[in-house]
Fold:
Amino acid sequence: MSTGNNGYNGYLSCDANGAKEKGAYYTPDPVVRSLLCWAVRNSDDRLLDPSCGDGRFIAGHPNSVGIELDPFATPAAIHRAPKAMVHEGDFFEWAKNTEERFECAAGNPPFIRYQRFKGVQRQRAIALCAELGATFSRLTSSWPLFLVVTAHLLHRGGRMAFVVPAEIGHAPYSAPLIEYLAEHFDHLQIVAVRKKLFPELSEDCWLLYADGKGGSTSHIKLSAQEQFVFHEMPPTGTTSVNVETWRNSWNKRLRPFLLPVAARNLYERLASDENSLRFREFAQVNIGYVSGANDFFHLRPSEVEKLRIPNSCLQTTVRNARSLPPVQVNTSAVSRWLREDRKTLLLRLRKEEKLPESVLAYLRTSQAMQAAEAYKCRTRNPWYVVPDVKIPDFFLSYMSGRRVSFVQNAARCTCTNSLHAVLLKDKAMLPRIQAALRSGVFQFSCEIEGHPLGGGMLKLEPREAGNILIPPETALSEGVKKVAQDGIAALQAWRHYEAA
Structure:
């Protein structure tokens, strides 16, 4: 049996010259052997790999069909799997026209991001999935589309086993895939693997197994493993996730089911409390401004003095979360930044205002001409007016490591888009927020509602920040902090940000 498969973990396909430099990585042998064992039950089973790369999956089962778009990889697949049938071309075009059906499927589909997965192939894939009853948004990566169409090509009773990105545990675009598989298979299982399958990648990968095509299931089986080891059968130790619970209570996310039971029960109890609120109910969470040319628009005090820019054209800004004090941005913090001559002064000009001669002179410099050609600048009129400059009540970190920062803005600063600008619609909520911070529930909620990013970071999109849970103070009993901390540690370990 052969080793590995070409999984396009990145944007580009594999070619014969330097696959790793171009973003192609190969599935470890124990994973390949396991997935083939899970999918193939008889030597006569017809196996499909919708993106076969250099043929490492189809080489493991002679009665196979592989589809591969990359002309560099196809000859390698034919050479590696001489008994298999290999088609070079677009899988979705092939699937639309083929009458072949299969007992099983296995592989490692392309993890192409939506920004690079475009054009006719993307349109064809989304349209075909819609015909099959799976509706995906324009932000969908390629791999869920491969799996839906592959599932459609299976005979009744068929099985499929695939490497998938860990995003299946939290990404909104993975939800239509899970819904589709639950509606079309008797058994749906996700194997979450904490230790990276591909150590050289920032992306975590899990495994997906579906069996009994033609049936349906009301539960998703989730198996959590510290590291992957070869299994002839899918792992039996599972958490049974009710699809309705996944859909309605957990915002179509599987990551919360990696938590210790006590931590998950705590969050469920707090979320179901009729007096609990979500951030969006009493606060506005917005991304800070985008200058379009940071070096031009952000000035040091020494530069301001040299250029003679008046204070009326400047606004003190917080550039990133690293600049934030633990609790409050106050005049003392701003004074320190200014003494240290940091680039913390935003050139804030307004439409139709008469500009001082010193500012006009700055706008005529070569640096200004270069800034005016930057994409964000050249698409606005006038180019030098930075939009969406807000003075928030609080700053909330957009990406975080150990701790999500929530810092009061007592100095009336603004912030860049590396932070969230939070406006409280109800100032009476502040004591409840502070209680949630002290109890650890605020950070715990951020870990659950946010999602992991490469390098162990936690990312909070605005809609995710809007879901941060603020329970009533009466619900935060003495034991809550320990359980919340256990939950935080567990999710940080899964995003590879373990305690030292």
User: Anything to note?
Assistant: Confidence is low (pLDDT under 50) at residues 1-23. Residues 480-494 form the longest helix (15 residues).
